[in-house]
Design goal:
Layout lengths: L13 H11 L3 H6 L2 H27 L8 H10 L8 H21 L8 H4 L3 H20 L7 H9 L6 H24 L12
Length: about 200
């Protein structure tokens, strides 16, 4: 049976990740010299920069949108509460996939698939309906399928508001989610945190 992952004063399991990485790379003097809030904040800063920096390099190299807003909260979930059901690979990948599907369906139903982004075209009744329906579909479907992942709500809004609608870009979006999840698996496992390979830990 896997031992429970310790939680820090701020909540979450980041303290276990930081401690595990410090032991693996023989940096325990840092965690002993500084208080846990300082060390965890520094880890969150560096890890956030690296996680999105890698995606940004992919975007720069390919000209594809490897970086989008809902990656930020997904990354935070992966490294702050990696053992939470919402952070597991299944919920992350399926949640964002549900968000993408709900956004595209909503655009089609309201005749907005070829419309520009709401930031430039403005908000009208059709856009309000598409945004509301996409978030409703995403929220309901994640519950029905038992794959809750809150950042997927941002993904569906990005699509239903017309910010990201090209099918090729939506494939890249899902690829970026997959790459971030692989990074979470690698870093959490390296730190000794039993981050699940697919479904949440029982």
């Amino acid at each position: 049976m896997t031992p429970p992952v310790p939680k820090g004063r701020l909540g979450g399991e980041m303290v276990a990740i930081v401690g595990g990485l410090a032991r693996r790379f023989r940096l325990t003097s840092l965690t002993e010299r500084h208080d846990s809030i300082t060390v965890m904040g520094a880890f969150a800063f560096v890890n956030g920069c690296v996680a999105i920096g890698v995606m940004s390099l992919g975007a720069l190299a390919t000209g594809s949108p490897f970086v989008f807003p809902s990656l930020g909260p997904t990354a935070f979930l992966h490294f702050y509460t990696p053992m939470a059901p919402a952070a597991c690979p299944r919920n992350t990948l399926c949640g964002h996939a549900v968000g993408v599907a709900a956004g595209v369906i909503s655009l089609h139903l309201f005749g907005l698939i070829d419309a520009g982004p709401a930031l430039t075209t403005g908000i009208d009744g059709a856009r309000v309906g598409a945004a509301a329906l996409s978030l409703g579909l995403t929220s309901g479907a994640m519950v029905w399928l038992r794959v809750p992942h809150p950042p997927a709500g941002a993904t569906t809004m990005i699509i239903s508001l017309g910010i990201l609608t090209d099918p090729a870009h939506l494939v890249v979006l899902m690829l970026a989610v997959g790459l971030l999840t692989v990074q979470a698996l690698a870093i959490n496992r390296l730190a000794g945190v039993p981050y699940p390979r697919w479904a949440p830990a029982a």
